[in-house]
Task: structure prediction
Amino acid sequence: MYYIFVSLGVLIVLTAASHYLLAANKKKALVKGWVSYQDLDGTGTPYTNKALGLKVKPDAIDSGKVIEYKSGDGSRGPREGDLLQLGGIMLATGLEEAELRYSNRNYQVKNSNDLRNKVVDVIQKMRYHLATRTLPHGKPTPDKCKKCLFTADCPDAASHVSAG
Ligand code: SF4
Result:
């Protein structure tokens, strides 16, 4: 009997802790109420697209729409990498609408042939580089290369950035 009470107590504490963590993450991500899927506490089940070799865990799915939270500034428009991420998530979940929520601005994104093709193109390039054990070309900018750990070895490093 004693063990049942102890186990029950531990279960209640764990449930309360995970509920608190989820509530804190939801608050941080501005999620209100219940959503049909969420991975804000890291417990979401991955969606897969075996044909493309994709496995994704969206931040949330609400009313048939993928929602991804980004902590950065969205005032200059959605970032290319974030759009590709949404494209991959839509290919794996089968959903056609998504929303990018930056700290200061939200963007609605509809799936399109253009976005699908870009995602497939990136996957094919990654496969090629893995199979040939070659590095893809970087997109050097002085700012990025100055902070990058690979400046000394990278053949693409912006030419006027010297390795420290
Ligand atoms: S040093 Fe190379 S890998 Fe690093 S940011 Fe520049 S281009 Fe990209």
